[in-house]
């Protein structure tokens, strides 16, 4: 029979991530944003906790669900920092899913920075073992390699990576650049479409879990504020228009989290590309409802940098563009829906 | 631990429900909808169902193995979704304790349980029970019920009117909520078991509905209806403090996830109907913009149905784990009917002109599902319940 409670091990992992986020990330959140980066020491410290994609997703490791718990905790503090803390974290999913040792080495070295670009439209073109193309945004200021995931294959480069800094809407702690590859030599490739599809699923799940974290933080902050702020003689949370909005924000966070847990649980049993695309679509939709409404609850204060909700609103918008964004996820759901049985099995 | 596997035992139970649904619930539900009247209690199907031991999916006391985990709430939501998938109206029409079960089982004295469960052990013909809270002037505001109860020697005299009560015309007994003193508000509430044929239980009549026609929604009047004092549910002691109203609320909390998931069952039926229609009538693999829209609609339906189900499952899992689930149950009940309304509406759109023609199933589902956002606490009441817990919204 189904059960929806965390195991002891999962709780322990969640607590570790929560403590790290509260003690090491939260106090320096705005500083990381301004500096567009984290201290190397902090990244090393995080690596020692064993909470990266490589550690949690490795065969026989704690798995996708434990990873989702970690990402929610980090996302609830600073999603940009969460990306920076595991700077090859998205790309590492393909190394795990394909079993490619070459790719494992490319993403595996200490502090290696590897972007994962989901190129559904195949805008990056190859010729003579070289790849060319551009993308206007990757969440990084410095990269050792770029992994490009296309519908049926993936390839990576580690030279001739041209980055031009840009100002992003959110996730500043991760950095942000426009990426140009001009006949960059292909360092390696994965031609197993199923492994690429599985990895794309895991990458979507990764981002979805971060979205749940940011949405949770936005909901929590807005709720606390609404209990303290008074208008017309009572806490604004006690005006029904806002009370109902706050309940809907709570539902949104829980719905997104359950979709992520469900997909993670399926991913831990293999496959699950459809569930992961669903989780991304759901988390994006719900987080994009929560982020702007959390600002709304704070009114004018919400628009100011004195409160974090403006950052949450920007971060959810930015996060939901990763991994091909919401449209690609929804298309992936739609593509297979006609064959989909959604009955009880 | 987290697992979304339902297991072999529940799977086998669902298979039986599926068979029942395919053979009886769906065809009878459609027939009742066309005839515009509920399936009568003497219909042979009810006897057949009863003799197979099939009752309603909720409200049945679970035989609990010593030390084993409780699974009643989870089995309840699985079964409720499956039955509702085939026909929600018929699943309510099935004989059994229905919503009368939880208050009797949770509040009743041993003697009361013995007496009022007795008819349900008779296998020669089907039996129903009913739950009467709603009044013409008190729906969501259950604290505002007007039906009065006045003590008279060894009996209570009930006066008032109840409306939209499921299966009350065919019920062996009805749990009737009344107030001993309106000025006491909820503290004045009492639940009585009123047996069929009690003098003063009058004017039983069908209400005519937009959907869910297969089961009977009826109204009745209580006119100097004399009920033995022993039929006060739980006895006098139960009503010390505010237990009376809380008794009613407790029964709601136990059933909310199962009611919420019924909306998912209806939405799933709409999804299947729309998907099958699309497969048959459209070439969805062709790059035609209209077809891409249909795919997107189906995708949204499928995604929301799965998420809504998860909210119900969590609330049921908490109930089985005997953890507080008030917020989670209300969340499921607020969320699922809304997404189910959207899903049935999208199904009508996917069918195009055929969607509104009664020959096709989806327009019935569109009418049926609306009730799910109203019964057992409207979506708005669920938000009030949640807001009280989450932000201390004053009463």
Describe the structure.
The complex is a heterodimer of chains A (345) and B (395). Chain A is of the alpha+beta class. Helix content of chain A is 56%, strand content 15%. The model of chain A has no long low-confidence stretch (mean pLDDT 96). Chain A is globular and about 70 Å long. With 395 residues, chain B is of the alpha+beta class. Chain B is 49% helix and 15% strand. In chain B, the strands form two sheets. Chain B has a four-stranded antiparallel beta sheet with strand order 3-4-8-7, with no helix packed on it. Chain B has a three-stranded mixed beta sheet with strand order 2-5-6, with helices on one face. In chain B, a hairpin with a 2-residue loop joins strand 3 and strand 4. In chain B, helix 1 (7-35) runs parallel beside helix 3, helix 3 packs across helix 6 and helix 6 runs antiparallel to helix 9. Chains A and B meet through strand 1, helix 8, helix 9, helix 10 and helix 13 of A and strand 1, helix 1, helix 3, helix 6 and helix 7 of B. Strand 1 (3-4) of chain A pairs antiparallel with strand 1 (2-3) of chain B.
Assign the CATH superfamily of the domain at 102-241 in chain B: Butyryl-CoA Dehydrogenase, subunit A, domain 2
Mean pLDDT of chain B: 90
Number of domain units of chain A:
3
Q: What's the number of helices of chain B?
A: 10
The protein's oligomeric status is heterodimer
SS summary, helix count of chain A: 13
| Overall SS class of chain B | alpha+beta
Quote the CATH topology of the domain at 102-241 in chain B: Butyryl-CoA Dehydrogenase, subunit A, domain 2
């Amino acid at each position: 029979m189904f059960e929806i409670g965390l195991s002891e091990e999962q709780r322990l992992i969640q607590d570790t991530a929560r403590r790290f986020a509260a003690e090491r990330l939260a106090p320096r959140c705005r500083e990381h944003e301004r500096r567009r980066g984290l201290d190397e020491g902090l990244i090393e410290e995080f690596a020692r906790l064993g909470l990266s994609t490589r550690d949690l997703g490795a065969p026989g490791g704690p798995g996708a669900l434990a990873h989702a718990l970690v990402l929610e905790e980090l996302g609830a503090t600073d999603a940009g920092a969460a990306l920076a803390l595991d700077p090859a974290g998205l790309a590492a999913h393909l190394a795990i899913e394909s079993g490619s040792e070459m790719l494992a080495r490319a993403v595996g070295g200490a502090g290696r920075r590897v972007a994962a670009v989901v190129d559904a439209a195949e805008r990056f073109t190859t010729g003579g073992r070289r790849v060319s193309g551009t993308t206007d945004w990757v969440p990084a200021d410095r990269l050792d390699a770029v992994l490009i995931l296309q519908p049926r294959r993936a390839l990576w480069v580690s030279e001739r990576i041209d980055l031009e800094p840009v100002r992003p809407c959110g996730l500043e702690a991760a950095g942000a650049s426009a990426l140009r590859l001009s006949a960059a030599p292909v360092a390696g490739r994965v031609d197993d479409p199923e492994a690429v599809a599985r990895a794309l699923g895991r990458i979507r799940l990764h981002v979805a879990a971060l979205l749940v974290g940011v949405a949770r933080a936005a909901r929590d902050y807005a709720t606390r504020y609404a209990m303290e702020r008074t208008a017309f003689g009572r806490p604004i949370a006690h005006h029904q228009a806002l009370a109902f909005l706050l309940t809907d924000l709570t539902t949104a966070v829980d719905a997104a989290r359950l979709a992520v847990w469900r997909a993670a649980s399926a991913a831990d049993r293999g496959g699950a590309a459809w569930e992961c695309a669903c989780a991304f679509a759901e988390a994006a939709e719900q987080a994009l409802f929560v982020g702007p409404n959390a600002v709304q609850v704070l009114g004018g204060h919400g628009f100011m940098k004195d409160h974090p909700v403006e950052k949450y609103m920007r971060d959810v918008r930015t996060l939901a563009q990763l991994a091909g964004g919401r449209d690609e996820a929804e298309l992936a759901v739609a593509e297979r829906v006609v064959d989909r049985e959604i009955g009880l099995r | 631990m987290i697992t979304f596997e339902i297991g072999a035992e529940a799977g086998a139970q669902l298979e039986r429900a599926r068979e029942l649904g395919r053979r009886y619930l769906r065809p009878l539900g459609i027939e009742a909808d066309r005839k515009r009247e509920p399936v009568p209690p003497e219909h042979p199907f009810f006897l057949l169902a009863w003799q197979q031991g099939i009752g309603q999916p909720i409200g049945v006391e679970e035989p609990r193995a010593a030390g084993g985990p409780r699974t009643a709430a989870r089995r309840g939501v699985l079964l409720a979704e499956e039955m509702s998938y085939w026909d929600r109206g018929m699943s309510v029409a099935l004989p059994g304790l229905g919503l009368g079960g939880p208050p009797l089982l949770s509040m009743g004295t041993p003697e009361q349980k013995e007496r009022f469960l007795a008819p349900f052990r008779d296998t020669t013909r089907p039996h129903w029970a009913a739950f009467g809270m709603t009044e013409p002037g008190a729906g969501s505001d259950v604290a505002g019920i007007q039906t009065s109860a006045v003590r008279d020697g060894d009996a209570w005299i009930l006066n008032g009117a109840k409306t939209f009560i499921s299966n009350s015309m065919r019920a062996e007994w009805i749990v009737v909520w009344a107030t001993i003193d309106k000025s006491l508000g909820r503290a004045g509430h009492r639940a009585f078991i009123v047996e069929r044929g009690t003098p003063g239980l009058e004017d039983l009549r069908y209400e005519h509905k937009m959907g869910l026609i297969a089961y009977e929604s009826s109204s009745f009047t209580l006119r100097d209806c004399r009920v033995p004092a022993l039929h006060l549910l739980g006895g006098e002691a139960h009503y010390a403090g505010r237990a009376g109203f809380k008794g009613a609320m407790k029964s709601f909390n136990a059933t909310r996830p199962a009611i919420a998931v019924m909306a998912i069952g209806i939405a799933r039926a709409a999804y299947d109907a729309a998907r099958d229609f699309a497969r048959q009538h459209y070439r969805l693999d062709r790059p035609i913009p209209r077809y891409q829209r249909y795919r997107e609609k189906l995708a949204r339906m499928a995604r929301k149905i799965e998420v809504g189900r998860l909210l119900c499952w969590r609330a049921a899992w908490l109930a089985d784990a005997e953890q507080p689930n008030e917020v989670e149950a209300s969340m499921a009940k607020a969320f699922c009917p809304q997404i189910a309304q959207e899903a049935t509406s999208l199904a009508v759109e996917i069918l195009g002109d055929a969607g509104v023609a009664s020959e096709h199933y989806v327009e019935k589902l569109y009418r049926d599902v609306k009730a799910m956002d109203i019964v057992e606490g409207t979506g708005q009441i669920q938000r009030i319940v949640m807001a009280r817990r989450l932000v201390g919204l004053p009463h």
